[in-house]
Structures are given as structure tokens and as C-alpha cells.
Amino acid sequence: MPGRWSRVSSLSEAGLKIAxxxxxxxxxxxxxxxxLETGLADRGxxxxxxxxxxxxxxxxxxxxxxxxxxTEVVAVTVGPESATTALREALAIGAxxxxxxxxxxxxxxxxxxTAEVLAAVVERLGADLVLAGNQSTDGLGGVxxxxxxxxxxxxxxxxxxxxxxxxxxxxGRRASDHGAISLxxxxxxxxxxTDRLPDPRFPNFKSTSAAKKKxxxxxxxxxxxxxxxxxxxxxxxxxxxAARPPRNGGVKINDEGDGxxxxxxxxxxxxxx
Length: 273
What we know:
Structural class: alpha/beta
């Protein structure tokens, strides 16, 4: 909604403040299931971990903090109380502090509500740069960074395969079907990165111990002045949910001298060539 998040932060004399969006998700190396009654992910069916793409975004921010004195990195998440574990890992990787938005009314929040909550957090922090992964591995929506930029009325540099952060702006490279596109945006801005960026560093014992002393601010919707139900902000509605259908048996081709021809015919019939 134009003007709702019209206040923009200015670069502080102390340095850059980067808000990194992280998320606790079901482990991608384990089976994941939907609750067929609610349509939500059954988070008790597998171990929950810090989303890998959020870890990569965090690595970019922490590396920037190591290269530029005065840079502050704040990890931000919206999720249940269990998401504190993911924030502690983010702090162990190198974030200076964390913000955890936890509220019963956020259960099953869609991308619009999630972005609205994150916009309120960014405003509260006065962050100069919001850094995120291009899409989470559970929802795969891929639109939260763009919606967030729209709400904050900031430029968005999204889906970056390479990124450089300066005192006044952020630049990077995005892959396309026709080559690479170079992007530059002045701060304050929102940027998202792809999995082409480096893996996050592995926390050692010292950093893990230090993370226990770093602050985590817990906020509710009331603290942020955001309503879960807002007539002016349309929400998505779950219409139906169903279990994934079982896989059909494949087609087995026994080569009797015509195997190549039969494979070519199969590919053509299924419009795979």
C-alpha cells in the first residue's frame, strides 16, 4: 500500500546496518509432509534447520562486517518459538543480534502478511540494507523480497548470483536467458541472493558459546502494530489440499535392436524433445 512504509532509514555515522532474513525450515534431506487438515507443513515430521539460502545471505552480511568496520548484522525471522534455535545458529555464524517475531496469529501466514511483518521490523531497526535468499526451501514462493521492497518503497536488487555492498549502494549480477544483467541500487535497499553464493561458515565452539550471550528481541504483532486480518491488505485463502499422488510405474524398454528408436518415440510422444 503506497506510503504505508514511507519512512526510510539513513546511513548512520557508525556504519551500515544489515537486516538478514532467515527462516527455520524442515530439513530438505528428510521426508517432508503436509498436514492434510490445515494445509500447513507438518514440522514435527522431520528435523527443523536454518534454511540454507538464508545462511548464504548471512554469510554475505558477516563477510561485509568483517571487511567494513562498524557494520552491524541483525538476523530476523518470523516463526514459532522453536525458530529460536535457527536464530542461535545465525548468531553463531556471526550476526550481532537477532529479532524473532512470534505470535499465534502468524500460524500459516501468507507471503503478504509475512512481508508486512518484516517491513515493520525493518522500520523498527532502521536497517540500511535488507538481505535475503531468493526463496525459502519450504514455501518456494520467491516473492517476499520484492513485496518487502514495495512496502518499504525501496529499490530491489533480486536474484543476484554475485553481490557487492558499498557505503552508498549495493550492486550485483543476475543470470538471465540471454546472459548476465548488472544491477545497482542506492541504499536503503532490499537485495536477495541465489545459491550461487558461498555456503555459510560452520560455527566453531567459541562462536557457538558467544552466541548464547548475544541478544534476541522477541516481538509480537501488537508490538509491531500489524494486524493479522487487515481489510486493506488482501490475504491468500487455502481452497483445498491433497496428498501427493503416488508415482506411476515407468516404461521399461527392452533393447532388441530397436531400443534407440523406441526411446526416441517415447520422448516425442511425451513432448520431451
